[in-house]
Fold:
Amino acid sequence: MTNPNKSPNFAVYKPKYTMNVMKQISRKALLLILGLATVLGTQAAEVVYRLVEFNKQTGEFILSASGQVPQGAWAYFENEYGATSGNRYNQIPRNRQASLFLKGWQGCTIKYITFSLCSNNKAGQLGYTISDNDTPLYTQRPADFASDQWFGTWVSKDLGVYVDIEKRIDVPAFTTDSAFITLQGGTAEGSVYVNAITIHYDAPTDVVLESPLGWSYEKLSKKSKISEGDECMLFRNGCAAADIDGMETSHYLDAVSLPTTTNVTQPDVLRFKLHQTDVQGQWTLTDQYGRTLGATGKQALAWNEGSTQWNITLGYEGASITNANTTYGTLRFNAPAETYARFNVYTSSSLPLPFLYRKVKQQTPIVARSLTFAETTQTVDLNVAHIALKPVLSPTSITDQRICWTSSNPLVATVNGGYVTLNRTGYTNITASTVDGGATATLQLHVVDNSTGIQSQTIHSAPSTSRKHIQNNRVVITTSHGVFDVEGKKISNVLK
Structure:
């Protein structure tokens, strides 16, 4: 059967999502999500979505997630500019926008968001909107990155670092299953670049929280045994069963490509929970949305109707999953030459059987083993104003790549995301620690004043009084020897 709403893809169907498609899916799934009970309490949680790259082959933005999400929730990122340019996947220019789509967040309340960002050298504007499906809950209009609404100064992308900017908000809980965080560029020249978005939220106590990492599935063969409550997927020839466009129309299950069964992250993959019936050897298959798989005839699968009981026999060539009404046939994998692959019930025995793969365990976070600076000490001139520190993380595949930064002497220098602001001469220790607690490194920073020829001599000397500040609408450097301009010319002997 041909569904005009589907696109042929020669055996393996891999959906290429757009926001419109995502909204269609969300509206469909909303009808299937169990309603939340009255919230008697909340539990605080956070999740980090880091933007890794744009995959030109699949047309998808790759996200790396860590933390906790509501069970079954997932996220999708779109950037209308990055999708066309590719090489600047995280860039949001003027008059463009990018969106983080959140699925499965009904009942949750965002308390604050930490944006990891940088700008052009001296330009770039950004605003954002939080929406509950199509209803905006909160909007901040675009403003200069260097304004007090954002970081307060420009952070050039050429430095290769991103600063963390926390935005506390007051919005109601999401009432639908779909939410959006949309980042809007301004109307002025310049761009803003997004590295990660950390969502700090409250979830109802009856919502189960889980890691957003993938799951490992094991193949069931003839010697395997299935048990009550097993959670399984249908898999054959690199494809897993899914329901993209709606089985109520197509009457079969879609097939989505699955690169690996040991780290399954695709949200489309249907996960069937097995339940024994009163009839020996017969089972029901209920997906993660609470839908029970049934059949109403030959090549006619359905949700929650028809015959919903199945005889399951495991074998080396696949799992024989035959409907209790044997005239409807057996579940098989079909990959027609000129149309899309699918799973359906067939009376023919020539098509291959699917394999049952049982969900075993969730992937565990990879923790940092080391974090190192290229140097343990560094001397910089006060006149530089800002420097960027980029420590090396090992392994590069660590799950949560956030780093906490501290300065032992903020009077000398402050730090955010590796972006160091020099305030006055002296010494300070800049410490970087991974959020997962796996590694810490410290760099001793010596700020000197080469424009005046005056520096602190030793780490044990008294703290210098030199500082950079604005006086009469110009930058000056005040030291114990007087006031100097940035060229080193003495302006006054009077300290101010």
Summary: The radius of gyration is 28 Å. Confidence is low (pLDDT under 50) at residues 1-39, 453-464. The first helix runs from residue 19 to 30. Residues 192 and 224 are 53 Å apart (CA to CA).
